[in-house]
Each structure stands twice: as C-alpha cells, then as structure tokens.
Predict the 3D structure of the following.
Amino acid sequence: MAEVHIVGTLTGASDFPSSRLSCRWKIVAGTGWRLLEGDAAGVTQVDAPEDSRFTVWSHPIDIHYGTRAVTGWPKLQVQVFRRDWRGRDELYGYGFTHIPSTPGDHTLAIPTWRPVLSFWDELSSSIFGTAAVLKNTDVVHAPADRFRLTTRSMGTVHVEVGVVLRNFEGYGVAM
Amino acid sequence: MFDATQQSQHATTFYRTIDRVENFKITIKLRKIADANVPLNDEFLGLDEGAIALAKKRRRLLLPKPEATVISWGERIFSPSEILRHHNHQPGKGSPLAAKYHALVEQLIAQPNSEESRIIAAGTTKGARRQIFTLTDADAYASQKAFTTSTREVLVPRENPASAMRRPALLRKRNRVIGEEDIITTSPVPRTQKCGWEEMHIMAYLDVEQTGSSKENVSEQSHYDAGFHICLCSIQAYDSGLVAITPGLNTGKKPHRIAIGQNVYEYTLKNASAPITEEDVESEWSIFQELYRQKRSALENILTMTFTSLPASKHIRFHITGQISWAERFRSKTLYIRQCLMVPLESWNIDENTTPAQAMMSTTQVSRARDSHGVWRATFGFPLEWVLLRRDKSTERPALYLTVCSVDLWNRHRLEGYGYFNIPEEEGRHSMTINTWRPLGSLMARVREYFIGGSTELEDLRYINMSNGHGQKVSSMHGLSVESSGAIRLTLNVVKQAEAYQVKPVTGKESHAHFAKGDIKAISDALARARARVKALQAGRKAE
Amino acid sequence: MTSNFFSLLLNGQIESAYFPSHDNLYCKFSVVCGADWAVVSGVEEGITQQSISSPTPSFTGQTDTLARPCVWNFPLDLAFKATNVYGWPQLILAVYGHDWLGRDVVRGYGAVRLPRTPGIHTIYAPMFVPLASSWINGFLSWVLGRLPEFRDSRFVGQSEGREVASVRSQGTVKITLSLGTKDLERFGYVNRPLKGK
C-alpha cells in the first residue's frame, strides 16, 4: 500500500476585483484512496488586507492518504468568497488544481472563474448580492463537457504544497 | 540524558530532559573566598610552593566552611529569616501557604539540636550556619537579576502563579460552534505564554553586614534579616522537556562568582540526578518500536496491499493529469477551447476503464476575459485526465490539439487559433505556454468573418502537427498563410508505471543488478575482482 | 524500513520584517508540530530584540518593493525527531510593537510551514492581525491600546475554526533557513522526483 503526504499552506489570493476574501477548500481523491490523517476540507479566515494586491490566508494543509492506484490522484478544489460591507459572503470564484505527482515542494497558481448568467441577472445579482452558484461543484474538477456554461475570469489562488511519497518504488512507478 | 547547548557563563543555558523533572537533582557547593579581613588574591605571583600552601591554609581558617547540598526538585529548604518569620506566624491569619510553612517550620524546630532550633534560641539570623535555601514554584518570586541579558518582556513577573502559566493547548470544542470570542480577546495576553512550566530558585543567605553600595544585588529583605538574600540559580522546567538553568551548570573548572562589597563567594552547580541505565534505554526503545509496529499493521489492515498491477512486460502505462489554465492575448474577449487528444493506435492503447470517450474530445466553458496587469486573460481551469498504454517504442506520440474559438454578443463564432502539444515522454510536472496561429483566408473570407462570423478552418486537425511529413522527403507547410494569435497555458503531470521501473529489494551481499543494467565498467570491475580472488587462492594453495 | 525515526535539522535566522505602517518591532516565535514529532535539541520558543527600522531601504519582499526593514537576525537552531511526515512543523510568529502612547500591542501573526526539501530557503511570511468586531470596538481598542489579539498564538497554525477569524494582513517577515533531513529515505519517504530508468 502506497502513501502520499500532502503538506503545505494555502497562502492567499491575488488579482481579484476585491481583496476582502475567504476560501473554502477541499481535497478530492478517487475511489481506492483512503484518508488516513488530516482534514480534507476547510475554510480559511477572511482577510481585508492593507496591501490590496495580495490577500493572505496562510491556511495549513496537512493530509495523509493511503492508496492502491495512481488513478484518482488528489485534486484541490477551491471556492473563493468575497465579504462585502454588509458582512455577506458572495461567491467569487471556483478553481481547482491537481496536486502534483512529483515529490518535492511546488508553488501552484490556481486560476479561478465564476459562472455568469444573462445581463439582467448580472444586474440584479450586483444589487442584491446573490451571485450565481453551481448546483453541483463536481463540474469544477471532473473532466466533462462544459460548453453550456458561461463564466467570467477571476483572480488566482496561491498554494505552496509539498508532496512526500512512500512505498511507490516497489510498484514500478516513476513520477 | 542531558544535552546542553551552552552559551555564556552568566546567561540562561538550556538543557533537555527525557525523564520526568521530579527526578532532577542538583548539587550546589558554596564557598566564601574573600572577606574584609582576607583579601582576594587571584594570583600568587612570585611566591614559592610553601608560601602558597601557607596562605591557602590561613584562608581556610579565617573564612567560614564551604557548604554543599544536594537539592531535589521541589524541595523546600527554609532560610534563617524564614524560619523566624514562620515561627512567629499567627495561626488563622495569612494564606494557606503561610500556614503550611508554619507547620513545617515547627516540625523542624521540634527536632533537637537542629540548626532551626538554634536560630530560634538566638532570636536572630546573625551567625546562622546554613546558608543555602530554596524557593519553589508556590512562592511567587520574580527574579530581577543581572545574570540574564534579556529585555524586561522576557521575565514578566507572574500575576497569578496558580493559574496563568499552566494553560493547556487550545481546546478543540467539537460539539459546539466556535465563536469569535473563543479565539480573539482584547485583554492582555501574557507575552511569555508557553506550555506549562514550573520554577525553582536556589538562594543563599549571606551573613554580611549591609552597606550602601551593595544594595543592588538584594532582592528581599525583612526586619528579621541581618544579612542578604541572593539568588544563586533559577531553574525553569517546561512541560516539553526543556529545562532552563540560569546560570548554567558548571562544566569546566571555573565556578560562578558573586561579590557583595569585599565579600566574594564562589559556587558550583552540578547535575546529581541518577543517570539512565542501559535497561531503561532498551525498554524505552522497545516500547517505541512496538508502538510503531502496531501502527503499521493497523494501516495495512485498512488498505489492502495490492496495488494496481503492472502492465505487461515492455509496456508503459502513462497517467496524465492536468488542466488548461488560461488563454491570453487573443483578439477576442469571450473564448472557448476545444481539446482533442489524438493517440496513434498502432503503438498506443487507451485504457477504457478510466478514460471515457468524452475525455478524448471535449469543450471548455465559454470564458469572459479579464484585464490583469494590462493583459486580457480568460481563465478556464479545465481538467484533463487520461490513462494511456504504450505497447512499443515508436516515434509517434499522442498529441493534444487545441482549437480556440470565440463567440460574441450576437452569437457569431470565429476561430481564434490552433495549437498542439505532444504528450511528454518524461515523467514529472510540465507547465508550458502554447502559442497559437490562425489561418488567414482570402480577403473576401476575412470580410465575411468580420461581419457575419465563420472563419476559414482546417479540414484535418492533424495538419498542425505534421511531424511525419506524410511520407514525403520534405515536410512542408508552405503555402498556408497564417496570423499569430494568443497563447494558452497548460499544465500536465505525467506518471509512468512499468515493470522496468520497479525497484526490487536488494538481497545478498553482492547484487547482480549491475549486470542487468549492462554497465560495462561495473562488469569489468567485477571480473577484475574475481580474477584477483582466484589468484589469491592459487597463491595460497602454492604456499601450502 | 531500516531506521526507527528520521530527523529534521533546522538552522537559520529570523532576519527582518517590513511593516509599512509600523516600526519599533520585536518578534516572538514558537514551533508547532504533530503528535509524532519531538524536539530533540534547541529551544522551541523565543523572543527577539526590539528593532527600529534603518533609514536606508534594502528589503525586497514578496511584491518586489524596496522598503526599510526592522532587522533582528535572530538565530533559529532546532532539531526534530519524527516517525511520520504528518504534522510537519510550522513556525508560528507573532510580531509586537509599541503604539502611539508606547503601549505594547500586537502587529501581526503568521505561520510558516517548514520546507519539505533540504537546502537553503528564503521565506517571506505575510503577517495579519485580528480585526475588532465593529468600528466602535476598533476605536476603543485603539484608544486604550488593547488591540484584539488571539488568545493562543498557535491558532494561526491550525486548520479548524479559522472561519470565524476576520483579519487584516499587514507586513511581511523574512526568514532564511537551511534545512537538512537525515534518514528520511531510509525510513521510506521520498521527497525528490522518483526517476525511472
């Protein structure tokens, strides 16, 4: 049985129209992957930065998986929320990235997008603060046709993650 | 058991203990080396052996005897003035601690011929013979010593010794929602908040007349005192096993020295705890190894040992995961990308179980670009996942073809660019930016494209990647006029699985792995070694 | 598995900090690690000296700006012993300074996960402070010199319960580390690319 350790930090975000953000993240892995230690999901703090170029979360990620296959390698899915002046959380972006399969330290930049509707829906959502959200967030990380979806590009989420493997050599794997 | 990181003689030295701090014992030897009558003479210059010995003997007679004690952790020894104070303590008044001390002191006084009863009989502390005493955790003693060079923030006197410092780690309140007041506070948080720690001070009562100039070394005086109290050593033992001793234990020959006016004292501190025995080390290691073994077996029971089986010999399985991240610098601001993976089926297979047909060709969402630092960028975050099997090594590789199109407000679709990328052979993480081009049609075609939409497109996508030249001697794309277009950012992780990569555990003293690898040098070295061995055997046999 | 545990050796310094709006700062650090980890040598908590920023700019932080840093150069020297990569240590930093009346207030908290690969690393750790729940509370805190602080500074190193924290990020701390691992491969862990033949 092979083990994968994903150890790192969800550092923050940049390039969003507003910088007062928080993030709901989760790690998704295929069947045959067993979560041994750690939390596979979490919510970061809400940051209102002094330097509006970068929002700081510094959220620790520490997960230990056991697996018997390479398929279903874990993916990190993020949902970015914006806190407005009334204290409401509005969805600001979806994004995902595959956790790198190469052992070592990696710095990842996750591009995000948010779904949009017609012009009038956009107007009402900007007044009432009800952004369009996906009913099923699986479409963010699962490969499937997305042609019916129209989205608006948003900023980037930054993650620093280190991958440490164990017992993979005996199974003839090179990564 | 102690592992010292020594700094200077008068600073705090940190030690680490694996044993419980209750087993800690320390030896302290206090000796007066100079007095008003006996001047301090560090150097005996120009004197011969006999004179030096005589001088030393005279010193020993004039100065009081040295005192040595072994103190264990938490042991409370009372100073002469404390004995007097606690003896005169009124029952029913004061704290429970004072009452407890009163009882202890009375017990000590009751013993005949003890030092304590002699002090009570004298009624004063002058001439008291025992000098070393201790203050434990329960007595809130704040050390304002000249020994440490830390700022005042490090040694903040504890406001409430019973509660503040033994704070446990942040409690996880799983059963109720954690509110903001649980985490954030506006009342002052002590800066030296640590894991729980206990303190102990070894003090000395020095029977010396007070003079004006030596008052700065004094920490506590009461009207019982005829002399000084001075702190010789402070010990803080933390829950984590860290022990901070100020000043450190004497490792060399040079003892610590304190001076009050003309009276100079020397003292040494030595670790007197029982050292760890061999059996203890063995038993600790065996507990540790047992715990680890149980943990491993528990883990193995959760998941079976069978990994996905290796592909057949000489076949390599490729697991490719990645995403199309974004597209930038296209002339349009609403884009979508059609991706298509073309796999040469003569030498490659597609794994049917994990890679459904729709993964081979699909379309991203329609993404509206945003201005980020002057560049219009449309983000997709489109996942790509394939599992392919390479049956034999050939030059043809699977290729990912990308077609970028745009759609506008009036639903006109236009081609924005073509790009392609050969799936890498090497394992690892590959991030690349693919530049695209789009074909320019005739003038009429371009005018039509501007007004109505619909562009000149390629009939066969494989035309982009003409690596095989279609069987001709010269691979030529001449004749096609194109315009450069934007760029696509792509990230792929490639994992390969093959029998050849399997690292089998090496058995035997000399593994024959180098033969399998075909390493010429290793083979010739092995041959030379074998020849030398044969020669040695033959020489040995000849000698017999 | 041929070894009972692996070691992590850390040698470095908390070099300096840049806070755009604050000066005269000192830093308190502590180390947080998992249950299968133990500190073998070195001190796991410490406080630096108080430093006023220099008049000449020199520090290039994350955003590539020249700024005037407060320099500490506080040494870090730690060795860990562990049996599990889960719980890889984090360095928790808390920076304090003096406010307009000279009272000791908090200027930033931050958490730095130690790198997982050996070598020399330069880390810029962003800092943040908790915000008061309303502007009136914020004003009162500023007047009284009792800015909101986390009850336990190790809170910034944990994953649970962070959603209730509303913070403001300000400032960066620069840390240079030299990290070495011992017996990590013998223990079975791989933190470098697994190459094929």
Notes: Chain A touches chain C through 48 residues (CB under 8 Å). The longest strand of chain A covers residues 150-166.
